[in-house]
Amino acid sequence: GRSNAHFPSADPGMYQLDITLQRGQNLAARDRGGTSDPYVKFKFGGKEVFRSRTIHKNLNPVWDEKASVLIDEPKGHLHVKVFDYDFGLQDDFIGSAFLDLSSLELNRQTSLTLKLKDPHYPGHDLGSILLSVLMTPKEHREATMLMRKSWKRSSKVTFSMWSSTFFLVVIFSFIFFKPNMPCRTGTLWHRINSPSDCVLMTLFCIPSNQNHEQTQSLRLSDLHRKSQLWRGIVSITLIEGRELKAMDANGLSDPYVKFRLGHQKYKSKIVPKTLNPQWREQFDFHLYEERGGIIDITVWDKDVGKRDDFIGRCQVDLSTLSKEQTHKLELPLEEGEGWLVLLVTLTASAGVTISELSVSSLEDQKEREEIMERYSLMSMFDNMKDVGFLQVKVIRAEALMAADATGKDSFNFCKSDPFCVVELNNDRLLTHTVYKNLNPEWNKIFTFNIKDIHSVLEVTVYDEDRDWNADFLGKVAIPLLSIQNGEQKAYVLKNKQLTGPTKGVIYLEMDVIFNAVKASLRTLMPKEQKYIEEENRLSKQLLLRNFIRTKRCVMALINAAYYISSVFDWDSPPRSLAAFSLFLCVVWNFELYMIPLALLLLLGWNYFLIVSGKENRQHDTVVEDMLEDEEEEDDRDDKDSEKKGFMNRLYAIQEVCVSVQNILDEVSSFGERIKNTFNWTVPFLSWLAIVALFLFTVILYFIPLRYIVLAWGINKFTKKLRSPYAIDNNELLDFLSRVPSDVQVVQYHELKPDPSHSPSKRKKNLPV
């Protein structure tokens, strides 16, 4: 068998769990022929630690496979899941069982029969799994040998790879390291006077065992320290293109624009089949240098199935533009034809800070009063983009996953060098690194200006390595509206996909102060775009997930149609009689204002069910299982990407499939957002919908429809005349974009921490 266990730290109580998967009995049939192709997954701590081979067309399979897993304490549950393999489709779930490790005796082989269950069908007989387990305590030396053996495949490095690494470091040093760049070694600061000095520092600043924590090479957090705080915001509005070069055979192009300022990147939407595109999109960049910078702009033609064609490029030198003023620029494209029309505005920014735990803006009475006054109702029309204030205290983390498993002594064994990244939209700040510690304390305070109260705060913990590749340790995503002010809370770290737990917890304390009126108005405006991220890749599980989500939305409509049909067929006479009476009453007295009134009553009814406790909300296990399988497939894809380049050879087919995948995601998300609005998933948005529907009902009741349509038409026809460079938007779609889909609900769901990690909670008298 193969094991991809994520081993925890080798504390004095480290244990080895030997598992022998023997056979299955009377498994449930999942194929049409009355058989199954079963395989078994073992999970511990939310991570897959072993997967058996697949035995085809057998309900009583015999595996006789063995696996060994290292755990740091003899407690918790081993999750056993059995699936039926389906080629090209989503594997069918057969059943699962849990093994309580605390019930096992040490150094004793135990034979077990686990009866499989399905939480959706608790009464079904799904068969059983026979296995034997043995738990034994391990010393540090034994654990080290086991971990090295299990990691042997992933840690092979050939001489050619080391040679390539050396030359890459040399090239990297010549390109990116400038003279007189500061480099920290231990507690002293040195100056790098030449690129060769930097290469030597990078390659040979290896710490000794006697001064392991003090002497270090260049650290990732140090390199980013200068770029943590920015001096201003550069707002760019991409208006239009004029007379662009034709790149397609039909004499037209499908143009889009890429922007780059340092490491910040944006990409505009694609406007098909035109040489005079109208974009009207806005992008915000952080300005780190006082003297400004240069924004590189390139224009491309989108081609399906081959590389995109280059149309032209231009630049914007920010040092030549005055601040606090909007500049209209008409830039000719170099190396091509045509023009770009932009609006560029430079504004100062002082709302993002980092400080020690002893320096808190909200604990200072004078500063807190100033912040409260800035976001009071009296200031609702001052700077509509400044919605609120967020303060995040990153206190400490506990029981993190050990990412470094090197060293000969017990001090170096199974440690990490953790640092924390705090992100709010495009604002990204870092803590310092705490070396060789699985329970780091940072005690840092971060403050942010809130542009959208529906944003999600992301806190990610990484392990810093000397090879510059930060290892992922865990992550949490916290919607701002779910924050409880002044409460120190332990958040269970999740995996990259935010679908399940990983090892460790992080202690945070947050405070949010915002203006409700500004937040409501901002909801009806377009969301802030994030920097360009990785392109979506084709994923079988992701495609199936989006297809199933879309199918669920369609099935909800079909079930509603069946329900209406049953009313017409008088399947339930009392229900049909009540519906018939209501139909006659509504149609005879129908007025247009009754449409928003009906939606208003539906929202009110769901609110009543929630408050009265009659609606029992259950976790969406279907979506959670799909996300879990998708993450496992991503992990396998990452490991096999070096061996398999098949998807890269089918670029055209992949791009079409990715488009279908994204369309299914958009359609299903749209339906789920509507459902979650009426389900009060985000109370703030549901209350906002109630206010809007109430106003709409009153307007339709008192004002004739012809006047409303007339006002709407005049506004639409004169909008471009009144504001030629206004960005087009749809208020309803902007509102729905703030409502989380079912996938996001699962990702933002807060996991319950272990009772042993319950933090000391303390409340402060802070207004919300």
UniProtKB/TrEMBL annotation:
Keywords: Calcium, Cytoplasmic vesicle, Endoplasmic reticulum, Endosome, Membrane, Metal-binding, Repeat, Synapse, Transmembrane, Transmembrane helix. GO terms for cellular component: endoplasmic reticulum membrane; recycling endosome; synaptic vesicle membrane. It comes from the Eukaryota. GO terms for molecular function: calcium ion binding. InterPro entries: C2_dom, C2_domain_sf, MCTP_C. GO terms for biological process: regulation of neurotransmitter secretion. PROSITE patterns: C2 (PS50004). The keyword Transmembrane helix applies. CDD domains: C2A_MCTP_PRT, C2B_MCTP_PRT, C2C_MCTP_PRT. Its main location: membrane. The chain crosses the membrane at residues 157-177, 590-610, 684-712. It is a multi-pass membrane protein. Residues 1-114, 214-331, 371-493 form the C2 domain. The keyword rRNA processing does not apply. Belongs to the MCTP family. PANTHER family: C2 DOMAIN-CONTAINING PROTEIN, DYSFERLIN-RELATED. This is Multiple C2 and transmembrane domain-containing protein 1.
